[in-house]
Amino acid sequence: MALSLSAGQLWNLAEQPFDPARLPELAATAEAQTLSGIDAVPLAAALARAMSWIQAHLHTALAAAVHLEDGEDPRESASRIEEIAIHLHEAATTTDARCSDATELVRRLPQTLKQLKLGAISPAQARLIATHTRPLGNDEAVTAVDAKMAGRAPAQSRTATDRMIRRQIVAVDPEGAEARHRTRKKDRDVWVYDREDGMSQLGAYLPAEQATRIYAAVDARARQAVPAGDERTLAQRRADALLELTTTGSRAVVATEIRVTVPLDVLAGRTDAPGELDGHGAITPGLARELAHAPEATWRRIVTDPVTAEVVSVGRTRYRPPAAMARLVRLNDPECTFATCSVPAARCELDHLREWSRGGETSVANLGPACAGHHHLRHEAGWRVRREGDGRVAWTSPSGRTYRKAQAA
């Protein structure tokens, strides 16, 4: 009979390549249900590693199941997908997409599949990589992307992996990315779904820069002067602002800004590297140039501090950073600094890493964007933060484990 594992043993299992020989012990520990509170955290982490290992083998089995030998009737594959869907309790169309991703992982993404088998990445990360590489016809490009993603994804959140793989696809296939963008634009649409309790859900499928601009206008309107006694949350004010801007014919001026980062050689047309749309991620070089050269665009050079002479510290003369410093902090850290968070810095509070009450300065080095949730986590749940030598912010949990956002690609 397998013995249950202690919290310390579970941490070792959760932080090492998954060893299937430990499955009986892990299963016994889970079945015993003796761990609770902070001691259950490593159990959840170890089980997540085991799930990745199982998913890797599920992908291998799915790819084998739908593979057709020469001369086999293509309808046989469809028949197998229908039968698999019954056992996965999902629609055949969902299983078909799952099998396509599995085939991509097995045939063209062996390094990504290996990381999944080791428990180093999640099933969601693996499927993201597979889904995005499928349109690539160049196997050499896929091999290069596979190697890069396998090396970086283990340190990333799902959102960070999504952004990185989209950037990689644009980088290795800029012409294909431009063509796919033109095709996708034809599918733009707006829809509404009925929901319970007299509510509905409104959605839109738009080019990224248009969606970003609309959201910026709604957000800016919601943040304008709030009357005394107004108890609406920011989310509720955004919803009301959307209604006002689209139905009342309001001509109120709403100042908005969308930020696009474009390398100079891309602007000049010398290279075709992807641009970066703040809050969205990679965009095609053609779209980046189009936005940069728009009549209303304002260019801002971003180089190192000695060249720009940007303000980097005001010591302890003031708590709130001046606008130039706040802008520089958000350029250095474009998202909340928590390891798995992707909330854009523009929607974050600027947190003093060494607290102001403990002598911390208001400086670029001592400030970092933190979304409202992680700001409260840091100050109310016992997490500690510090800026490290490579510029990243390290977050240490009450368990003593330290987590960092993956370095930029």
TrEMBL record:
CDD domains registered for this protein in UniProt: HNHc
Pfam family, one: DUF222
Domain HNH nuclease: 324-376
Transmembrane feature ranges: none
Gene3D superfamilies: 1.10.30.50
The organism's place on the tree of life at top rank: Bacteria
Protein name, UniProt field: HNH nuclease domain-containing protein
